């Protein structure tokens, strides 16, 4: 009952004003456009963006985004709704895992803490892949702890289809939990994953090069372990906010308690997720999100030893100001519609090819429903090479350097949408 009340009370944090602002360039608009093209093409294995094969990530996360678009429309809300739904599923999943390992109090406190982690909430309100990745990790570990073989292998199959190489970090923990049975467990996920790889090897000759660049960032480059460690520290701190120092302290304590399986699981899971970041200086804030739930489990597993009342009071003391802060900084913010979105929507009503003067290709593609061309160089050079009438969205400053005549169509903030006629 307590977790049900918590989830219901958290719904506004995840869904209020979810579709009120424009999709953000790059990743959010990028992924929404790819999902939209999946709906149009019906090809579930080979994805496209701006008429080019997209191989950066497997299609699982994009399938989920298409569900939202199919049900709620190809718009901002439809492109974000599944992230919000999965954000709630993650709260439920960490509650069940915490309850299984440490008891109901730890499950409840971990769920509340995860909901208040700023970057978890932010990404749950964005049309990205990170929450899908995090939630499938939570549920895969939970099903493994419960020894549900088929639920684990299905969850793991989805996990492998979310991001390029990130899901594989969970395999060492699965070895600990399943022993030799892990090889049977991996048959279905690996088979499905290889089907996607095979389809894209056929479709794109550069697949493996792109795979290594995206999935294994910084591979083979010399980096400073200390600098990378400090980068992880900063990013995790930003990601979980006021829980950070307590979580790190509790994780250190839990390493001395790993002979107890309940402490082994969050400790190993956190290490598996964060350890690869030590060897790459290309780690980013969103790469740390899957570690949050396991860090918080370790925290409340340790605090629980001090008693139920202390655990609950500590949780409320930290969570209350974070909930208020997240409300004002992430949820109840001023609606913003970008100039790129406004002008691209206007361009969608016109038949000519669309060029853009800055790098907002995903936003322009999503809102204009056109293939997008970047303008490199000056407007005069673009006009000279164009073979037909065309549209251009560019900063108005760029138009000061041309004497070419054009038809003004619309303006928003500092950008203009114009039509150039060749004939």
Brief summary of the model shown:
The protein has 423 residues and is of the alpha/beta class.
Secondary structure: elements and pairs:
Blueprint: H1 2-15, H2 27-41, E1 47-49, E2 52-54, H3 60-72, H4 76-102, H5 104-116, H6 118-124, H7 130-145, H8 149-160, H9 171-178, H10 182-185, H11 187-203, H12 207-215, H13 225-240, H14 244-254, H15 261-274, H16 292-303, H17 308-331, H18 339-347, E3 353-356, H19 361-368, E4 372-374, H20 379-385, E5 390-395, E6 407-412, E7 415-420
Parallel strand pairs: 3-4, 3-5
Antiparallel strand pairs: 1-2, 5-7, 6-7
Helix pairs in contact: 1-4, 1-5, 2-3, 2-19, 3-4, 4-5, 4-6, 4-7, 4-16, 5-16, 5-17, 7-8, 8-11, 14-16, 15-16, 18-19
Description:
By secondary structure, the protein is of the alpha/beta class. It folds into two domains: 2-221 and 304-331, no CATH class; 339-420. It is built from 20 helices and seven strands. A five-stranded mixed sheet has the order 4-3-5-7-6, with helices on one face. It has a two-stranded antiparallel sheet with strand order 1-2. The N and C termini lie far apart (70 Å). The mean pLDDT is 93.
N-to-C series of helices and strands? HHEEHHHHHHHHHHHHHHHHEHEHEEE
Q: Which parts are unreliable, with pLDDT below 50 for 5 consecutive residues or more? A: none
Q: Mean of residue pLDDT?
A: 93
Strand tally is: 7
Q: What is the radius of gyration computed over CA atoms, rounded to a whole number of angstroms?
A: 24 Å
**Residue fraction in strands:** 5-15%
Strand order of the largest sheet: 4-3-5-7-6
Distance between the termini: 70 Å
Question: How helical, in percent, are the residues?
Answer: 55-70%
Give the helix/strand class: alpha/beta
> In this structure, how is the largest beta sheet organized?
5 strands, mixed
Q: Could you say which overall geometry the principal axes of the C-alpha atoms support?
A: globular
Kindly give the count of domains. Answer: 2
Structure annotation, total helices? 20
